[in-house]
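Known limitations

Structure tokens in this collection are predictions and should be treated as such. Users comparing against experimental data should check residue numbering before alignment. To illustrate the layout, the record for Protein containing DUF185 is reproduced below. The input appears on top and the generated tokens appear beneath it.
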Amino acid sequence: MSLGFRTRDLPPLTAEEAGRVCAMIERLGLLRETEGPLYFDRYMECVLYDPSLGYYRQGQSPIGTAGDFVTLPETTPLFGETLSRMFAPLYEAGLERTLVEIGPGTGRLAGQIAGALARAGTPLDHCILVEPDRGLWPRQQAFLSTLRGTEGTPFEWCTNPPPEWSGLLVMNEIVDAFPVALVEKGGSGWFEWGVRV
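Generated tokens:
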């Protein structure tokens, strides 16, 4: 029985991309020399979030049809509208009308939720987008400024979650980008996987 997997050849790296790959390999080698074993969580943190070389630190969103992957809010507003229908009764019952989105990508999900809540008569008092890559803030701001129904929503950007707030938290397609330890239980107990560079 065939599962029908298809393969796709990736385009060759540009000179700039190849240079970044080489620089990242050097960075990982230096980490191994200075910190000892390069465990998977540290490797993942570096390749995704290194300030100058990390995948999510390039100042452009990899999300969307022109990017590396597409998330549901990029294809339809129904996800944001569905969440807003779940959130509205909570806000109407007295929960502070604050929404915090961690890893907002293009800002589309927060905008869809804010717009749908406003149209339903339950506008947000505050929407906080937690985006560690400040290079994405202008793109998110530009997108949200064009989205119908969000005109009265006060949006705020920060690199880390606020220490104190009350309201609702949303994260979409973000948990898979957390640097996590990779562990396995073997015959002699638990061990943590590392990466060889």
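For this record: Helices lie at 15-35, 40-49, 72-75, 78-92, 108-119, 137-146. Residues 72-176 form a domain with the Rossmann fold fold (CATH 3.40.50.150). Please report discrepancies through the issue tracker.
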